[in-house]
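Protein modeling request. Please complete all fields; requests missing the sequence field cannot be processed.
Requester role: graduate student
Desired output: 3D structure, token encoding
Chains: 1
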Amino acid sequence: MRPAATGSARPRAARRAGTAVVLALALLGTATGCSTGGSAEQDSSAREQGGAPYREGTLRVLASSELADMQPVLDRAEKATGVKVKLTWSGTLDAAEQVASGKADGAYDAVWLSSNDYLRLRPEAAGKLANETPVMSSPVAVGVKPQALARLGWKPEEVTWSAVHEAVAAGRLTYGMTDPVRSNSGFSALVSVASALSGAQAALTDADVGAAAPRLKEFFAGQKLTSGSSGWLASAYARRGDVDALVNYESVLLSANRDAKAGLTVVRPRDGVVTARYPLTLLTSAPPGARESGRALTEWLRGTEAQRAITEQTFRRPVAPGVAPAAGLDAQVRRELPFPGSRSVADGLLASYENELRRPSRTVYVLDTSGSMGEEDRIGRLKAALTELTGTGSSGTGQRFRDREEVTLLPFGDKVKEVLTHVVEPGDPGAALDAIRGDVQGLEPAGGTAVYASLKAAYRHLGQGGSDAFTSIVLMTDGRSGDRAQDFDAFYGTLSEEQRRTPVFAVLFGDSDRKELTHITELTGGRLFDATDGKDSLNGAFEEIRGYQ
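Delivered output (549 residues):
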């Protein structure tokens, strides 16, 4: 499963979506030729887990999606070393699970994440990791509009996380941040804020997180944009115009200034940061040839030529002595904030963010249940994907609808058939989740395909509630609309500015019209996701969209 949008690093859901992503890329890779140099058992494992079979001279790497900007450097590395790097994108939690569970054995030769801190919290992963070598670094930072900086009277070198919190709590600063459950940058930002606001002097504990919870909730009340990827976040920020800041890696913020003319002043809070060091880490399961390729690649990446290219092209900081950081990278050292001391603390922090700290979500799923959905068991695939997405009351973080989330199913054919709304109550999530699963199982294919009329109904429904939530519309259709785009465009133009900030995330499925769906997502500031790769891709598309809700 892949996003149909282009240009930015592609996001991946932190858990189940990663499997679909890996599978799609593996099918692409195995179509290019036969494997050599690996055992039959390794080839079989690679196919089962989604990685391409081992080929001499190719390093299979499970990587953070933000590393898409390293491709030009890796192309130069291939010319210099003969090592071709095949990157498969993953979220931090999904990568940690694949390595710790052994699923990465035989499927990948190395992992390349922003940090191995979360991975190291998994004791069973210790024997899976061989050489671990930092290649570059980038601290979490806050990119602030100059006018907001002036309004707050801030001097960039003196700003602290406490000052940011105070400004947000007073209603004087708003910001965007990626989803910590599905984005490496969001997870690092969450740890940064929690560490600073808790006053922790050592590794974060449950007590630290609990003590900081009231201030953290105040802080996240100011989050007006969420996203599964840094690239889309920057685009949404530019489109809205009413958000004051972005919380992300320093390198992402500086790249947004260069590539999207974001005009942000990059602030590294004085009371400390969490820094991504991007360790290229070989797996003990890698074949001898892959381990040698990994060593050659790592050595070249830490050399002067590569380090200069990395810092100049990506704004990450070099790790090699004697190589100066790119212009715009402040050389002043900041205190490194402590990472959670155990997996339970890290997972607890994520669960608290999902279900308590962040603003709640309101989502309308506009679902094509026209007659054509009865073909090729499309309705069955839709039901299976939505059932998995819903989860149960005992599902882990990121594996079910969140507490306080309002979920609306809006199935349509010739017209809207029903509007089914449920709110996941914090004390009793199972009741709403059971009801949603029951509604999903009741979906039946019949009628035509009134896409635009159904989208109008979704916007009207969202207009009936309060605005203190992340609102979004998810459109899934397997065909071309039977009504007129012009009518929807005219309707969209009549909406209030606040209503027009609700994006439509559309899913390509079956015989749906890419041009039509692209128009809808571009008009509304959403994103197009491709679920045409195979039977599991619809699951992956819905999972991936979760990072944007």
